[in-house]
Write a structure and sequence with these properties.
The longest helix is centred in the middle third of the chain and has 17 residues, at 62-78. Strands 1-2 form a two-stranded antiparallel sheet. It is built from nine helices and two strands, in the order E-H-H-H-H-H-H-H-H-H-E. The chain is mainly α.
């Protein structure tokens, strides 16, 4: 009987996780600015202030409040303010537990903190709830599986992420670290 053996040649760069799941808010100019800030490559203190102002000064629908909490959490996570990011993602999840973006970003946060074991059920929840960016969820879950030593599951999820978003460099780069051989 032949077995397929997988080996990862190096550990993944978890700290520089490349993506988050922003949520667009339409409630006002500060809410829109917060969304744009969450997609920016650099998170500034002004970006956090813009998000704060959206929550403090604008009358937002529950959907827009949810979006601002998620987006502000992304900005704070990008600034390595993990405690406050966790509070924002937690507020989003408490507000709308059936929406996947809060769960997905909490999973990314756990992964960035180096806790793949804690990230796994959060990625599972985001996938189960139907995230709009499943490639990000599968990619992150693949890194989390690698972190806990489940190499076959890591490989499968990284391949799935690459299939869902062809041309995305990160999964392709991480898959190149694997060697598959028949025994």
């Amino acid at each position: 009987m032949k077995a397929i053996v997988l080996a990862a040649t190096a550990t993944a760069t978890i700290v520089a996780f490349p993506a988050s799941a922003q949520v667009r808010a339409y409630g006002g100019s500060f809410a829109e600015g917060c969304y744009k800030a969450s997609a920016a490559p650099l998170a500034t203190l002004d970006a956090v202030t813009t998000c704060d102002r959206a929550l403090q000064r604008e009358t937002l629908s529950l959907d827009d409040q949810f979006a601002v909490y998620v987006d502000r959490g992304i900005v704070k996570m990008a600034r390595d303010n993990f405690l406050d990011a966790q509070a924002d993602f937690g507020a989003a999840v408490a507000m709308s537990p059936r929406r996947p973006e809060g769960w997905l970003n909490m999973a990314i946060l756990r992964l960035r903190q180096g806790n793949g074991a804690a990230a796994l059920p959060l990625f599972d929840k985001a996938i189960q709830l139907g995230t709009d960016v499943p490639e990000v969820a599968y990619y992150g879950r693949g890194l989390a599986y690698e972190d806990v030593g489940n190499i076959p599951a890591a490989y499968a999820d990284l391949r799935h992420a690459a299939m869902l978003r062809p041309g995305w460099a990160e999964p392709t780069r991480d898959l190149a670290r694997y060697r598959v051989r028949n025994q």
